[in-house]
Amino acid sequence: MKKLGFGCMRLPVLSKEDTTTIDLEQMCEMVDTFLDNGFTYFDTAYMYHNYMSERYVKLALVDRHPRDSFLLADKLPTMQLKAQEDVDRIFNEQLEKTGAGYFDYYLLHCLNVANYEAAEKYDCFHYVMQKKAEGKIKHVGFSYHDNAELLDEILTKHPEVEFVQLQLNYVDWDSDEIQSGKCYDVCVKHGKDVIVMEPVKGGNLVNIPEEAQKIMKDVNPDASIASWAIRYAASKEHVIMVLSGMSDLAQLKDNVSYMKDFVPFSKKEEETVEKVVKIINDTTKVPCTACRYCVEGCPMQIAIPEYFALYNEYFRFGNYDRAKQRYDNLTKDHGKASDCIACGQCEGHCPQHLSIIKYLAEIAETFEK
Ligand code: SF4
Ligand code: SF4
Fold first, then answer.
1. 261 and 325: one domain?
2. Residues 133 and 255 in one domain
3. Whose CA is nearest to atom 2 of ligand 2?
4. pLDDT given at position 176
5. Of all protein residues, whose CA lies closest to atom 3 belonging to ligand 2?
């Protein structure tokens, strides 16, 4: 398998305000280009694009291409399980929505302490193995957002799992919070394949500070900034797939250009990335990946990732008027940062373990005074 996967979490949309307005025409062109270049792996999930990603995977991929010409990954939303019957109901709904007949890769979505507890409570590991025996799933795994210790515990208890999907990128590799490097080592210890999510950290490793971009361009003037992040992840020996959430055809063509005949990182490139990490960490206020897991349950409809994006931009580039204007525009249709009632719903869902309430207070202080 070529090591680039088509992530269906950030598909092209017709309106940035509404993630369900997926641009089907462009998506079809992207899917076709991806397949034409010899790539086969597609990754979706129940909740992506406000529950519409799976339906568009059917329209753009499943209905238009032979089933044996692509591999499809989908995920059981462990964070939404409230009763035993939810597991089978959701799995069958996913088969219906995608029209795929079976899933090549199926993951328990977003395991952390709370979601792992739910997965055990509702016997999800046993369920997916049963579906594997029935031929509805080819490979069983889970995506993971917690520390290396818990990962070790899960893999010890569940040797039947074939692969783990990890957030892995050059900024998070040594991070105490995300622990990409430590989690990768645990997977290697247990002999598991690794699939990488968030290689560009939700776009944060594309829009890096100019100083960092210059360092990269001095080493390789022709390489895109995104290519550094994707190739970094793909260069890890036990990584079998790197998912990229490509949002338009140009991004897809860029990814395809260097992953078609993939060349692993050189020593010089590894050293360059080490220099860049420090610059990025010094200029990132909120390490949000814009996954939007926090948004759905917010009782005040606060545009959490959008506020964090403009706050980061302000911190990095210092253009207060521009950031304030964007903030004011967003607050016309969403709750303000100061509307937060500190219920904590969002923080419980954030895979990056961000102190969302604290950051919103800072944002209110910055843009509402
Ligand atoms: S803590 Fe604030 S931002 Fe988070 S869900 Fe509650 S109201 Fe919304
Ligand atoms: S705050 Fe956390 S959950 Fe919300 S979009 Fe950012 S990373 Fe995702």
1. no
2. yes
3. 350
4. 85
5. 350
Q: How far is the CA of 351 from the centre of ligand 2 (A)?
A: 7
277 and 308 assigned to the same domain: no
- For residue 203, what pLDDT is reported? 84
Q: 71, 102 in Cβ contact below 8 A?
A: no
Residue 42 corresponds to which tokens in the numbers above?
Answer: 């597609």
Residue 11 has a pLDDT of: 97
If asked whether residues 229 and 329 sit together in one domain, one would say no
Residue located nearest, by CA, to atom 2 of ligand 1: 340
Ligand 1 pocket, residues with Cβ under 6 angstroms? 298-300, 302, 304, 340-346, 356-357, 360
Q: Which of 307, 334, 346, 360 to mutate to test the pocket of ligand 1 (most atoms within 8 A of CB)?
A: 346
pTM as predicted:
0.88
Beta-carbon-side half-sphere exposure of residue 279 (alpha carbons within 13 Å): 17
Contacts (Cβ under 8 Å, ≥6 apart) of 93: 46
Give average pLDDT by consecutive 10-residue segment, the chain, 369 residues: 96 92 98 98 97 98 98 97 97 98 98 96 98 98 96 98 97 91 98 97 87 96 96 98 96 96 96 94 90 93 95 86 92 96 95 96 95
350: domain range?
304-367
Whether the CB of 201 sits within 6 Å of ligand 2: no
45 touches 9 (CB < 8 A): yes
Q: Are residues 277 and 333 in the same domain?
A: no
- Nearest residue (by CA) to ligand 1, atom 4, is 346
**Burial profile 164-186: b = 16 or more Cβ within 10 angstroms, e = fewer:** bbbbbbbbbbebeebbbbbbbeb
